[in-house]
Design a protein that fits this description.
With 189 residues, the chain is an alpha/beta fold. The chain has helices spanning 13-23, 42-50, 65-78, 95-100, 121-128, 162-187, and strands at 2-8, 29-36, 54-56, 83-86, 105-109, 132-139, 149-156. The chain has a seven-stranded mixed β-sheet, sandwiched between helices. Bound molecules: 5-O-phosphono-beta-D-ribofuranosylamine.
């Protein structure tokens, strides 16, 4: 059975969708670890409820990013992780993780990349006045929301309600992430 680790910093709805898909056998993998840099984030409670082990850490307590990423790599290696799924993990990865898990890290981003990178993608696109929105899943490299695009879904929205737009985008994310992870794993030897 392939093993997935999920990295998240906040709410964790994508985390939960992927874990539940694994637990139901929809994704043929085991969700073995949550990595979280915000010990009080709601995603941690979701992990406890779903029975997923957590490695929670406070970045400030480490001398450097390399130091805490080495700890993360150790946690991942111990569990023989095949794939890392970033799901609202609000940190850029350094070469420590990128080298150790090269080609095995995916991220989900709530815009049609390369447009609207960054932490406020939905609001930025809305305020810009775009008429087609979407979600991207991409491989992770050292750049912000960069890396090869693996999957995208788009939809037109011409309304004026940011909350409704956010709801529609989040509703797209979960099935797209599940589908993409399934395809990704099926290509792994
Ligand atoms: C999602 O919109 C995802 O695309 C972005 O961060 C958000 C995380 O949401 N990277 P949630 O924590 O999974 O609910």
């Amino acid at each position: 059975m392939k093993k997935i680790a999920l990295f998240a910093s906040g709410n964790g709805s994508n985390f939960e969708a992927l874990v539940v898909a694994c637990q139901r056998g929809e994704i043929p993998a085991e969700a073995v670890l949550l990595v979280c840099d915000q010990p009080d984030a709601p995603v941690v409670a979701r992990a406890h409820r779903l029975g997923v082990a957590c490695f929670c850490f406070s970045p400030k307590t480490y001398a450097s990013k390399a130091d805490y990423e080495q700890q993360i790599v150790q946690q991942l290696d111990q569990r023989n992780v095949d794939l890392i799924c970033l799901a609202g993990y609000m940190r850029i990865l350094s070469s420590v993780l990128l080298t150790a898990y090269a080609g095995r890290i995916l991220n989900i981003h709530p815009s049609l990349l390369p447009a609207f990178k960054g932490a406020h993608a939905i609001r930025d696109a809305f305020e810009y006045g775009v008429r087609v929105f979407g979600v991207t899943i991409h491989e992770v490299d050292a750049s912000l929301d960069g890396g090869r695009i693996v999957a995208q879904h788009s939809f037109p929205y011409e309304g004026n309600d940011l909350a409704e737009l956010e709801r529609q985008i989040h509703a797209l994310e979960h099935p797209l992430y599940i589908e993409t992870v399934k395809k990704w794993l099926s290509k792994l030897k």
